[in-house]
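Researcher: Before we compare anything, I want clean individual predictions. No alignment, no superposition, just each chain on its own. First chain goes here; please echo the sequence and then give the structure tokens.
Model: Echoing the first chain and its structure:
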Amino acid sequence: MAVTLMDDDIDIFAQAARFFAHDYHERGMVKWQGYYLSDHTEDVHKNQLAAAQAATRQRMPEMDLAAITALLFDAYGRHEIVHVQQNFSATDGVVPEIITGLVTGYTESAVIIGNAHIPLDQLWWASK
């Protein structure tokens, strides 16, 4: 079965072709700029917030490794949440964040708090 086009159909196609050839102007990336701007603004805000929090962190008082391991072992047995801070600073002098979570295990040289493996020789402070 063959389809035949009427003169009215050809006029509609001709009008559409003329519109897209002469009148329609593609905006290209302009239509996406608002999306990129909002994502960029949100990302900048998150980075500024993280930097402000990092700048206000304080180094906790140093504890003896034996006291830290005793506290962590007790928390492990009682399924209590602990807070630890590591003994290093970033190259820009930012104090490391306090890691909070359950003690989920030990290895020969590290403690596992949540999903973080923290070497025992890098422990600085701990609390329940």
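Researcher: Okay. Second chain, same rules.
Model: Second chain and its structure:
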Amino acid sequence: MFDTMTLTKIVGAFCGSLLIFLLGGWAGELIYNTGEEVPHEGEEVHQAYTIDTGEDENAEPEEEGPPFEEVLASADPAAGERVFGKCRACHQVEEGANAVGPTLYGVVGREVDTVAGYSYSGALEEHADVWSPENLNAFLEDPQGYAPGTKMSFNGLPSVEDRAAVIAYLQTLGG
């Protein structure tokens, strides 16, 4: 089955492959190394050149689409209920039914961090007093960006139409 010669050939092939791999890496470094040292952590890296794209880096981004108030006025609560499916993993809409997140029954117009029986992080109180449609819109777009430190780990709803539909749905739940 295996004799000494077969085992020697296998070990030799493995060592030869390793040697070729190491020599290839060494040759690649010689060919592509620019002679500059790689910056260490904390050192500033300077850009070698800049390509002018015609955009002003300090310019404000242009507003896209209609204002949120107009989108909310024409939002469909039934569509919001479908979009709310993304929220159901952590939130309930029944009064007093907290889950991973607090109940969203009557959330529109409610003061921030006031659901009984739910332990809040306190990050939201620094950014809003009441859950107005505008505050909900900003929060639902990027929860971590709106209130850094919030317990909510959801990435947000990038579509203004989806946010408006969810808020319209939440307004129908009363309070």
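Researcher: What stands out in the second chain?
Model: Residues 4-32 form the longest helix (29 residues). Additionally, The chain has a mean pLDDT of 84.
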